[in-house]
Amino acid sequence: MTTAGAACLYTANRTHLAWPAVETLVGMPQQLRTRLSGLLAAWYPAPALAGLFGSAARGDGATDSDIDLLLVRPDDVPSPLDGASTPPAVAWSEQVERLRTAVQAMTGNAAQIYEISLSELIESVRAGDHLAEAWRRELVVLAGPAAWEQLALR
Hints:
Distance between the termini: 47 Å
Structural class: alpha+beta
Oligomer: single chain
Order of helices and strands: EEHHEHEHEHHEH
């Protein structure tokens, strides 16, 4: 250990027996993003955009923090919350629930999923909605990067 002002600096001992465990723990945020991206890539209908936000995106969560996810439905997929029972709406709803279960299994944390349509997201961005501004600052895109790049520039 060395000091730099008020900070203590440590050097990793990569020959230590515990190093593989430390490396695994340090890599957990990236592993979560990789696994979620893989799950979302198999969706049909696919999300127009999906990403992490909040403490999971910032990396400052506690052991009891929710995993906050933004899921954006394509406009041609009706909202299951509106009682839509079309095949795309049912498929979407089932995928969301499987994702919620997967996040809980992978992390031990609950998934807080904020789900909206692409049109609703565009309107939120245009209106300067506070949640849309938070997404603009911290969203870690898991699916739909092209859609996000277009929206983030507005």
